[in-house]
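I'm curious: can you give me some protein's one-letter sequence along with its backbone structure tokens because I've never seen that pairing?
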Amino acid sequence: MNTEELERGLSTLIANREPRSDHINITDLRSISGGNARSAYSFDVKWFNGKKDETRNCVLLLQLNKGQLDQELSPEFDLLNFLSKRNIPSPSSYWLDASGHFLGAPGFVMERVSGQGELRNLLNSKYKVRNAYLAKQMAEAAARLHNVNWNTSDFKSCEIITKENAAIKQVSIWEDLFLMHRMEPSPILVNAFGWLKRNCPVAERIVIVHGDFRFGNILYEDDKLTSILDWEMAHLGDACEDIAWAYRPLWSPHPQLAFSQFLKHYLKTRSVELNERTLLFYRLFSEVKHAVISLTGANTFAGGGNHNLRLADRMTWTTECLRQFYEWLPSNNGRGL
């Protein structure tokens, strides 16, 4: 799809979703950095609503290829709409084309939030003071998210999640993906799933979990966190899942801010006790989860669903994930967070 076709598709989508819109004018439509499966575009749009001009700065996420995960767009779109009313640093959602009827592929338009999100700079010791401050703001944002009352009429969820089944639900989801996408038996990963299923903790309470909460998914301006991005893996579950994922070795802000300090700022905003054994469980779960994401990406590339070369070597990432998993196992004298 070229720029002119995409512009026409966006205009038709907006006209359909904003019935009172007239003289829709899309400007500065350009491709920006996206994920492995979703192409991202930035644009501005202006229209007349019958009384005044409306202007929005937008980002379009278009699902053109298969990726490391194949997620429906509707839950993410609905969640962003829900969170936009609850003081969570996240972009507002504007218009959804779940079937691709208007855009030629499934996609949705959301608010373009100001800021940058270069992970290399966030992990660079040259900016340690700034990065530590951003990590503290991340902790506070996670606490605010986990404090959100989701048990309301405007929250959409089709699953019944309880304190007792939150962990096993997630383990089962990722085990199913593993069994679907593995290209070899991988008995070590089978064994890891066995351990997780035998040791599922009971959640302290059920919260909205971001699911990919880490340094690489924030935007910031100077020393201010402006938004948390990439909500496609969000779900109801245990808060410890986000906390453990944020401090995975691959992207951990630990050199900038020790985990104890991160937790201190988290607990300032969310006064709860986080069980150490539950945190360790989710740290182990995180390594298995990332191993499955890597296998899925590799299988997608091998099957021709996506030609992004970044997926070609994803299979090799599982080795480090599993090494970390077995190093941290309590029976292997593993350590906690």
The chain is about 40% helix and 15% strand. The first helix runs from residue 3 to 17. The two ends are 47 Å apart (CA to CA). The domain at 119-332 is CATH 3.90.1200.10 (Aminoglycoside 3'-phosphotransferase; Chain: A, domain 2).
